[in-house]
Amino acid sequence: MPETDKRKVDMQVMGAAEYNKAWVTRDDMKLYGPFSRILRRIILKLVRPLSFTSVLDVGCGQGSLLKELYSEHPKIEVHGTDFSKKAIEMASARVPNGQFQFLDLSKRHLDETFDLVICSEVLEHIIDDQAAIRNLVSMTKNYLVVSAPQGRMRSFELSVGHVRNYEYGELVKKLEKHGLHIVRVVEWGFPFYSPLYRSFLNGIKGKGTTGKIGPFRKVISLGIYGLFKLCSWKHGDEIVILAEPIRSKQIEPEK
User: Which is it for strands 77-82 and 54-58: parallel, antiparallel or unpaired?
Assistant: First the structure.
């Protein structure tokens, strides 16, 4: 990354206090927002064929993904970490049987390992993503699911703490470099999410992605979610990767 771009990125990195404030205003969007809903749908479909008894969601936010995962797999042990203590508080309330704790993924990992580790929409916020990936691998016993944006970054994404969008193929190579075998790659979003929806959000500078979502906005969000179901799983600016450590003896799930 050029030094001028690095300085720009450094100024945009959000601290824990900013993430705490952000979660207060983004709970509804994570619950009802069309992108958050479709991303949970993709992740749940990827992990559904897998066998796991413990799951860790790194960057669990307010816990909506873990809640849906637990509803499908009620016998699993549920764990979550986040950089925001407010998010941990919200996730603990949403998934009261889960175990949650603070974690700065760029600096350390938990001592435990988990059958399934999920890290969704986190790596694009971390400058040293190589360290973050190493820490993810250290906590992964059998399977790792990672999602992140790729392709052209829109300017509004800087305001929510993004320090990068991955180039096409870049994240796969980074995961392989850290000893992971790629089981499946979903590149989702064309055409309704990318470029149409992302360009629209950029045009309105990300407005409408925070605050309470009333009945009217819920109807609009549901309609967009319906369009998102029609998006390609082979072309798009959102990448979701299912991987496993090379040391794992697990059999690949059916695609």
Answer: parallel
Report which of 122, 132, 120, 125 is spatially closest to residue 240, judged by C-alpha positions. Answer: 120
Q: Can you tell me the distance from the alpha carbon of 168 to that of 57, in angstroms, rounded to the nearest whole number?
A: 24
pLDDT digits (tens, 9 = 90+) for 230-239: 999 999 999 9
The total of structural domains in the chain comes to 1
For 53, phi then psi, to 5°, come to -115, -15
Do the beta carbons of residue 252 and residue 183 sit within 8 Å?
yes
Q: Check which CATH number belongs to the domain holding 144 and give it.
A: 3.40.50.150
Domain contains 253: no
What values do phi and psi take at 13, rounded to 5? Answer: -65, 130
121, part of any domain: yes
Domain membership of residue 251 (yes or no) is no
Residue 76: HSE in the Cβ half-sphere, 13 Å Cα cutoff: 26
Q: pTM for the complete prediction? A: 0.89
Residue 169 lies inside a defined structural domain of this protein = yes
pLDDT digits (tens, 9 = 90+) for 63-116: 999 999 999 999 999 999 999 999 999 999 999 999 999 999 999 999 999 999
